[in-house]
Amino acid sequence: MSWLENLERDQAAGTKRLAALLDPDDLPSGREWLRFLDRLQNSAITDVFIGGSLLIKQNVADIIQSVRDRFDGPITIFPGAPDQVVKGADALLFLSLISGRNADLLIGRHVEAAMRIRRLGIEIVPTGYMLFGDGQLTTAAYMSQTMPIPLNKPEIAAATAVAGEMLGLRVLFADAGSGANQSVTASIIAGIKENTSCPLIVGGGFNDAASVIAAWNAGADLVVIGNAIEVQPNDLTWLPNPNGHSQATKLA
């Protein structure tokens, strides 16, 4: 069964998932990297996403292999640029930035990468990517040169999501961006979920268990946590278990 089929099956069953977004430029090194991977394996994390907006220091293929060696769950590339697409992952989110009007991120980069990606033989997941935010300029907004959808405009979010689904995109990804002060609101998540049928991924701004659980309850099928794990990689016990129990309780 493919990554997307598994996500759709979990969506139908009401089973939630929790992903760690690993930016290769912001990861521990040496023995601490291996210890971190062991903590990740023993945490509530079900998925690993790998990617970043810049990627200056690290090789994505090497990171994927080291995660594969110590983590049992699926590994998905969440690319910030075509050169981040490499072998070794279970799937690739083929992102179309439907919240913006930058043609390069709607189709331009896709044309650049399409034939190389096809030769890799990796599973492609057509994904409608939507950026959200108010005021603060996140890395994703700056690098994409687009204006995020305001967090107080759930009707725009829902219409954008519906348009993406009508275009044939198989997954929707609502993202407040790395390091965001506020996560995507419950009203936006609920509005997207009520008006679309494909799986919904939500990320950005999640730094406590309550906010993750609130996103699941609002309709998110998979929540992505990045910056909060980078800031405190030595403690992953706060992560809520998708099956309804905190990781701290599970370890006890």
Descriptive account of the structure:
- With 252 residues, the chain is of the alpha/beta class.
- The protein has a single domain, classed as TIM Barrel, CATH 3.20.20.390.
- It is built from 10 helices and 8 strands.
- Helix 7 (186-195) packs parallel to helix 8 (209-218).
- The longest helix is centred in the middle third of the chain and has 18 residues, at 103-120.
- The protein is globular.
- Residues 245-252 have low confidence and may be disordered.
Q: Tell the overall outline.
A: globular
For this structure, what is the CATH homologous superfamily?
Answer: FMN-linked oxidoreductases
Question: How many independent structural domains?
Answer: 1
The CATH architecture assignment turns out to be Alpha-Beta Barrel
Helix content: 40-55%
Descriptive labels:
8 strands; about 40% helix; globular; TIM Barrel; alpha/beta; about 250 residues
